[in-house]
Amino acid sequence: MIRILHIFPSSAIGGSELCALETINALNNTTRHKNYAVFPDYGPMQKKGENEFTKSIILHYDWWVASKPWSLLLKIKMVFGFFRSAQQLKKKILENKINIVISHTLVTPIGAMASMLTRRKHLWYIHEYGDLDHSLNFCFGKKLQLTIMDHLSDGVIVNSSALQKHFQLFFPNHNLERINYVVNYPTIKAPNKKDPNKLNICMVGRIAPGKNQIIALEALAILKKEGIRPKLIFVGGHEPRYLNELKAYISTHQLYEQVTFISHTTHPWTFVESSDCVLVCSLNEAFGRVTVEGMKAGRIVVASNSSAGPEIINHGKTGFLFSPNAPKELAQILKDLYFSDDLSKIAQKGQITALENYNADKHSEQIEKIFEKLRINQPTIH
């Protein structure tokens, strides 16, 4: 029996947190694992997964990345906080006879620190760039923090080749392993036909500069000049300043009738199902969960060709790619979709590709191989 302790970045429902829960769910398909989850506080993700965990542990810990740089005094204070949290986690590891700790994020070091204190295996599962996608500062310096991660890990896994390429130089002691997400999502039948001279577009995810929603509005403005007026719906929470920027653009270009905002919802697929295509405009998407979700939902996905986008979509065959800095290029793709009356071939091929590559069986198989490399398939309890 392998006892696995999963460190969640937060108790909120986010991409990294969902992946961690899906990993646990996939590993629960075999009786040879017991999965323990650690959260910094009570929250919706902790509640959502309570039936999946052998035990849920609430233990406060801080991040070592932040939206603003830290002062020297704060850095010193936070170091003491990390050691205090690691000591508390050490007790939980020993009490529950944990064999391996998986940190499902790069935002906190406490899982790695506690693993070192207990001489347990530690696996770092990196889901994000941190700085490029979420505008977070590595508060002790990116090179130093990644060097620490390198030395405090028995293995490092990532969710895309783009992330693998970006981080590999920082991990000279490890070959970063890329594994596929599960991406649980309702499978919706791809539509056979669509109304020509009509296009309903859905964008799911937090409204933030890194998600680059502004280019979608720029493409709509270009098409409006040609008398082409697709409908666009945004589904997700928002950063107030960036939302105001989008609304100002909408006002300037008179796009009111074409754009709708829906706040965060637990059932975004209802909006995806009523759309013709899903749009992903991120500048630096470490993976592209929404891209796979849209494909599984049987919808045409149009995504930026930066970072992990080209790994998921084969342009013109399973979806479409565009430069995240070229609104005219995006506008042309949307124009073609607007006038098309049959999107079924690409939508169906995209759906098949997503279902074949992103599922629990493939994910658990890849995790098991990593466990074998770490020699924990027959663990010894110390």
Structure write-up:
Helix 1 links the parallel strand 1 and strand 2. It is built from 14 helices and 15 strands. With 382 residues, the chain is an alpha/beta fold. The chain has a seven-stranded parallel β-sheet with strand order 3-2-1-5-6-8-9. The chain has a six-stranded parallel β-sheet with strand order 12-11-10-13-14-15.
Short descriptors:
382 residues; seven-stranded parallel beta sheet; disordered C terminus; 40% helix; Rossmann fold; 15 strands; alpha/beta; 2 domains; single chain
CATH class of the largest domain: Alpha Beta
Distance between the termini: 14 Å
CATH architectural label of the largest domain = 3-Layer(aba) Sandwich
The main sheet comes to: 7 strands, parallel
Broad structural category: alpha/beta
- What is the number of strand segments? 15
C-alpha Rg, in Å? Answer: 22 Å
Low-confidence stretches: 378-382
- CATH fold description of the largest domain: Rossmann fold
Helix and strand element order: EHEHEEHEHEEHEHEEHEHEHEHEHEHHH
Strand content: 15-25%
Number of structural units classed as domains = 2
Shape, please? globular
Share of residues in helices: 25-40%
